[in-house]
């Protein structure tokens, strides 16, 4: 796999999702990643540290200057716990759990996050405002309600299917209520 091309495609997909999700500084963006799927294999069977590092580094490089916090979801072997910066866990009162991810329990994205983040910790759950799912890893449990599916500008990354979620406030009040413009759907 051409890692430079992977970086370029990841950036294109991410920038599209960031723009359309209306995520703001201080909010959490969740990443679900199957490097096995990106490499053209089956989820959990061909994990690649190089692919994980390329994707996570590209995403961190875009989120950090925007003040958006990354949470990298692990696989089911870690109960889909997430890697975040320790300060994010403290600031958002997240439950820190004791585990260090590896390639086959957590996955390449989490291993990369532990390597690339300043002070990473594993947390039980987050309530993210948007997220990117590379390889059908099921990030929905970590994105706040009401979830709005986004179809990325590019629907595949390598061999992986790519989806995304944003979130918006709940509409309440019924027929007599008036609502502000939806920042995601622009209506």
UniProtKB/TrEMBL annotation:
Q: Where is the signal peptide?
A: none
Per UniProt, what is one Pfam family of this protein? DUF436
Q: Which domain of life is it from?
A: Bacteria
Q: Which family does it belong to?
A: Belongs to the UPF0340 family.
Annotated protein name in UniProt: UPF0340 protein BN1356_00566
Task: Provide the species name.
Answer: Streptococcus varani
**Gene name in the database record:** ywlG
């Amino acid at each position: 796999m051409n890692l430079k091309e992977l970086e370029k495609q990841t950036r294109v997909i991410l920038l599209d999702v960031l723009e359309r999700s209306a995520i703001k500084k201080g909010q959490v963006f969740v990443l679900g990643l199957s490097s096995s799927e990106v490499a053209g294999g089956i989820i959990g069977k061909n994990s690649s540290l190089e692919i994980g590092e390329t994707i996570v580094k590209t995403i961190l490089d875009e989120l950090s200057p925007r003040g958006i916090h990354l949470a990298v979801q692990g696989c089911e072997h870690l109960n889909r716990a997430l890697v975040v910066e320790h300060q994010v866990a403290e600031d958002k009162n997240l439950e820190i759990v004791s585990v260090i991810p590896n390639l086959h329990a957590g996955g390449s994205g989490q291993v990369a996050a532990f390597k690339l983040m300043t002070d990473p910790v594993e947390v039980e759950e987050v309530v993210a405002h948007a997220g990117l799912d590379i390889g059908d890893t099921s990030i929905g449990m970590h994105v706040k309600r009401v979830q709005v599916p986004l179809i990325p500008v590019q629907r595949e990354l390598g061999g992986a299917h790519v989806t995304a979620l944003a979130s918006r406030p709940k509409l309440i009040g019924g027929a007599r209520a008036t609502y502000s413009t939806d920042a995601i759907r622009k209506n």
